[in-house]
Amino acid sequence: MVAVDDDLSARLRAIAAVVSGLGAEAADREAEHKLPTEQVSQLLAAGAGALRVPVEFGGSGAPVRVLAEVLIDIAAGDSNLAQIFRGHLGLTEILRFTEPGPARDTLLRSAADGAFFGPAGAELSTPNLTALATTLRRDGDHYVLSGRKYYTTGSLYADWLNVLVSENGEFVSAIVPRRSEGVTIIDDWDGFGQRLTASGTAIFESVRVDPDYLLHHRNSLTNDYMEAFYQFVHSATQAGIARAAADDLAELVRGRTRSYPLASTPEPAADPQVLQTVGQVRSKAYAARANVLQLADTLDGFLSDPTRQRAERALLDSAATQVVNTELVGAATWQLFDAGSASALKSRLGLDRHWRNARTVSSHNPAVYKASLLGDHAVNGTAPRAFLNSLGASNASEQGKAL
What is the CA radius of gyration of the chain? Predict the structure, then answer.
């Protein structure tokens, strides 16, 4: 158990109060495509977006371990919300590594005050994330950003956008206000899961960028850590979905009155096979959570001593967590129907959303590649490498800074 001070304890209680109400209407929101704008605002007001902001900027300075617990709780209530926060948490983490300057100081203080960050990295028109068509050109005393992004999870709710571009052979994040002239966010995500994350299109038409708000990614250790961190958020979301599935299944079985002719007892709540299935689903949720907490400890370990060895360990542990949690949550959200009977298929219950949402989260970074990475390291000793280090970061400094 991580020790927390009084201020952080108060913030965690405020977040918990909001989280406690997330699940009540989660299925209805998804069925009606009602965006959780109010819930995002409530979480921000409670301090969820400031957990990792350093204390000197007005945040909580909470360890990643504490963030892990909160993320799992949020995802158990509504997994859309946990994923919506991923881009915000990522930029907050990047800013913790950034050298002192107008961008770092302004943005971290804004996050402490409840501002929200959204991402704009991937593009549909390019073969992969390392090949970006979005452009950034100099125009006098500023830059001009133009392009089209997709998978911009949470940007519809944001105050600031973190736009990934390639400039002079390296990755750069251009941070622009969400309401800048020339910025358009479209909620056109059409995936069958995580429907409320607004993971759609962002269009940038000659958007002005302040040179002070260009963040470079030249530190290879930081890049490794950030790749592990971003995956950590997905894995925490998976763990929350597994717990939600386990809780919903227990409630469903508790209320069942009809059984099968082949069942050993007429009461489903006393049927040993039904109870076994409930227990198996709960065990998978337990294991998924434990994996995330172990990964959080690895990330906190890197932050306390940012070495190459610890950076590689973070990448390997995040990959292993992703591989295993993908299997656990997939099996749990499928298996729950074995104990739910045909009544579990009713649309009003929305139990199918657990499997759809789990499958969607698990598809963003396919686990097969992470399993291959782990196997290559085990057999051949190949060091894992973050994708940000694949362009312009091969000569980056190996030393952590501004941690």
Answer: 22
Which tokens in the block code for residue 64? 């990643």
Look at strands 160-167 and 201-209 and give their pairing. Answer: unpaired
Whole-number Å distance between alpha carbons of 186 and 175: 19
* Cα separation, 195 vs 19, whole angstroms: 19
> Rounded CA gap, 301 and 294, in Å?
11
Parallel, antiparallel, or unpaired: how do β-strands 160-167 and 117-120 relate?
A: parallel
* Cβ atoms < 10 Å from Cβ of 101: 11
For residue 391, give the 3-state DSSP assignment.
coil
Cβ atoms 285, 239 nearer than 8 A = yes
DSSP bridge partners of 58:
none
> 213-242 burial, b if ≥16 CB within 10 A, otherwise e?
bbbebbbbbbbbbbbbbbbbbbbbbbbbbb
User: Which tokens go with 158?
Assistant: 């944001």
Ordered DSSP codes for 286-318: HHHHHHHHHHHHHHHHHHHS--HHHHHHHHHHH
What would the two tokens of residue 281 be? 């689903």
Query: Each residue of 329-376: pLDDT tens digit?
Result: 999 999 999 998 888 899 989 999 999 999 999 998 889 999 999 999
Q: How many residues does the chain have?
A: 403
Place of tokens 């009713």: 346
Residue 123: how many CA atoms within 13 Å on its side-chain side?
Answer: 20
How confident is the model over 263-311, as pLDDT tens digits? 888 888 999 999 999 999 999 999 999 999 999 999 999 999 999 999 9
As beta bridge partners, residue 340 has: none
User: Which tokens in the block code for residue 390?
Assistant: 């694949």
Three-class DSSP category at 23:
helix
